[in-house]
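Following up on my earlier thread - several people asked me to post the actual chain instead of describing it. Fair enough. Here it is, all 192 residues.
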Amino acid sequence: MSLGFNSNVSAGGIDYHVQTEARAGPDATLDTVVYVAGRVIHRVIASYQDLLDGGASRKDLRDRVERQHQEVVAQLESGQVRDAAPPAITALDLRLRNASSWLQGGNASIELGVVAADGKPVDGATVEALVESRAGVAVRRSGVTDVNGSAVLQFVLPSPMPEGAALVIRAASGGARAELHYKLKARPGTAG
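Reply from S.P.:
Thanks for posting it. Predicted structure:
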């Protein structure tokens, strides 16, 4: 016995997908799940064992499934259910904030800024800086952005600089990624 409803609901600038189904078996439950961008943000589970025990018809069960589904849709439309997490980040803008002063006497201090496509700072993005060449990775430092979307990564550049070395800076949050590349000159203490 499979009964269910699916709805797409737009409310408060957010697109929700609502799915309700009757799950048969020993639990006999109605399960309503609300998704935003594939992520579960709300769930309602209720038993319909009383209908089974009372000998209710398939139509009675269908009506109960539809009622639960419509109640959750109404809650979304009235603003009673909110996406607890921020919308998924789909694009990042990674910036080297101190592009002209990140290197002093062979010591790197990379000041990074990470913002989402909407211009808001990304808190908790993973950032990484590495010096790599054909010989492999010579240096790797990583960190996490703060509430302002900022992070500072510090390290000593290899000396001598490997031939063909590049400074690679990466940021990631959710499924979104950004990357910067800077070719490093063989002369120690300079970047190009």
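Residues 36 and 83 are 7 Å apart (CA to CA). That should answer part of your original question.
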